[in-house]
User: Fold this.
Amino acid sequence: MRQGKTMKAYRLKGIGCLEYEDVPLPELLPGWVLVKVGAAGICGSDLPRIFETGTYHFPTIPGHEFAGTVVDACDEEGRSWIGKRVGIFPLIPCQKCFTCREGQYEMCRDYDYLGSRRDGGFAEYAAVPVWNLMELPDRMTMEEAAMLEPASVALHAVRRLTLHPSDTVALFGLGTIGLIITQWLRIRGITEVYAVGHNPGHGECMKRTAWPGYRYQNSVSPDRVSAAGALSVSAVSESDADPVAWIMEQTGGKGVSVAIDCAGTTESVTNCLNSVRPGGQLLLVGNPKGEMAFDQASYWKILRHQIRVTGTWNSMFHHNNGDDWHCVADAVADGELHLSELITHRLPFDGLLRGLAIEREHTEYFNKIMIFGGCG
Ligand SMILES: [Zn+2]
Ligand SMILES: [Zn+2]
Assistant:
């Protein structure tokens, strides 16, 4: 079916130069399948990738958060997937390095990546290795499946922590990953979470209470209330306050036992260090927004307060139950994890440039912006 056929795709031809055009259908190799893209989300990391740093070579079709239906293959293994709805783990591990051999593919030394190192999901079709496919449960929608990746990244982050329901948590940065982390914390039975967000360009401050003990402080537009409302977060307006002082006040001067940074700035990590109690944990999730530098007093805190600092990267995909991706699918199917509610914009397939403009210019509140292909 592929001979001479073309598809619509967004090709990055240089930094900031993303063109919507007709391109040949992807070539298929043995062990790979052709996926008709059903839904593809814009990730926060796509903005610097498209507009600042570029991909590893040009042209490349970006988009690593996507799901679809397998429509073609060139070998028996692949053909057994035709017709199946699939989620797609975008990291293609080398399978040879020592971390791969230990099954920790997210730390592969020599990986390929759909949507940055090779063509991804901002296209009508994408070529994907069978190894990277996950068959979707019937109850999972295509848009939820396109959020398997960020939801798995969020779960992977939470799994780096040692958690007890009595833990108190401060979370800085409320993009998609941050908001999904708050859900995983709730699923883990943690009721005392202080969430701090900042959305430049929107001056309103909100404080929200989601469930008993849950506190939220944010500088956002009122639209964010609807996304948070979906997480059963109720909002109370508050003046622009120092988040550390607020957290200290809420915790009786002790600080939280766990601080999570999902923003990736010197300010947000410093706020984490100043919010966490002696003997607490600091989890670093957010991609750094630029060079970071910490004052001596903050660094001393790590030493004197014996803070356990933990990093997290990507997610674990193993093809079996218990990995991050299958746990996300189960939690969505069980109605515990709510992903659709984080989608603020559902755009047609030709609306990607509009979605990117919304994220770049912050003209309106957004969380997950998704484009949709032909199959639902
Ligand atoms: Zn991403
Ligand atoms: Zn490897």
In short: Residues 43, 45, 64-65, 149-150 surround zinc ion (ligand 1) (CB under 6 Å). The mean pLDDT is 86. The domain at 161-311 is CATH 3.40.50.720 (Rossmann fold).
